[in-house]
Amino acid sequence: MIVKKNVSSIEQYLKQRRVNLRKKIAFIPTMGALHEGHLSLIKLAKDKGRYVIVSIYVNPSQFAPNEDFSKYPRTLKSDLEKLRKISVDLVFTPVTKDISEYTHQKYSFKTFGLEKKLCGKFRPNHYLGVSEIVLKFLSIINPDFAYFGEKDYQQYIFIERIVKQTILKTKIIMGKTIRNKDGLALSSRNKYLSEKEKNIAKYIYKYLKQSRLLIKKGQLISTVLKKQEDDMLKLGFSKIEYLEVKDSNLRKSNLPHNKSRIFIAAKINNIRLIDNILI
Ligand code: PAF
């Protein structure tokens, strides 16, 4: 496994590597603190026989000043061990100065307001920060495929829509949410949860499934979601930032159909967790 730490060295390396590479290139961007969710995206790419590149970079521009940038888990040594074990081909671990000085050709794209919905209401510059770094990575690496997790469906759809409008040829692929045995969606932020908080967090998925069942049985979406929110607050969640049903383009959906999802962002103390499921 090759590790590259700066833009010019990965660009140079890939220029040569591409010459005889008979594989498609798959890219999995991460902020490290790797878990089975990340590894499942890597496995998806490996199973297709792709040349797999993973980036590890905690991107400051997607965090607001009051968020958890400084305490975000940084576990580079064990991350690299995990990647080595599953034979990732190339890892990119840039430092902020280098990657922020890198400029690529400006892409113009419409965002369709996707960055303002759901998480965007509570994290106003988040998706612009995400798109900035992802577009940089895609420009440097120029992969055939890039993989994003379903748990962050809004991020997936946002990136998918904007990349399609650029000259980039990368196909954006979504990999399934991976859950622990209690149903909690895997996330690097789960590391912040105490045992007691984990016992509360597991109800996110339980309630999402219950709401899906009631909606499918014909109950009014607004009634079902109001009840879920009340029940979760009683159970110990400190805040439900949003709990909404949206279609695959994140438009409000008053009637369930097979592409709508229930989306939630819930806080336990100050730990913010998100999840979503297809109806
Ligand atoms: O999903 C994440 O971990 C991040 O938002 C990403 C895509 C690596 C960009 O920093």
Describe the structure.
The protein has 279 residues and is α/β, with parallel strands linked by helices. The protein has 2 domains: 2-175, 3-Layer(aba) Sandwich (Rossmann fold); 188-278, Pantoate-beta-alanine ligase, C-terminal domain (Pantoate--beta-alanine Ligase, Chain: A,domain 2). Helix content is 38%, strand content 19%. It is built from 10 helices and 9 strands. β3, α3 (76-85) and β4 form a beta-alpha-beta unit. The radius of gyration is 19 Å and the shape is globular. The relative contact order is 0.13. The site of pantoate has 10 residues, from β2 and α6.
- Count of runs of 4 or more consecutive helical residues: 10
Q: What value does the average pLDDT take? A: 97
Please tell me what the overall shape is: globular
Radius of gyration: 19 Å
Strand order of the largest sheet: 1-4-3-2-5-6
| H/E topology pattern | EHEHEHEHHHEHEHHHEEE
CATH H-tier superfamily of the largest domain:
HUPs
SS elements, strand count:
9
The residue fraction in helices comes out at: 25-40%
Low-confidence stretches: none
What profile does the largest beta sheet have? 6 strands, parallel
Bound molecules: pantoate
CATH architecture of the largest domain: 3-Layer(aba) Sandwich
Distance between the termini: 40 Å
**Roughly what fraction of the amino acids lie in strands?**
15-25%
CATH class of the largest domain: Alpha Beta
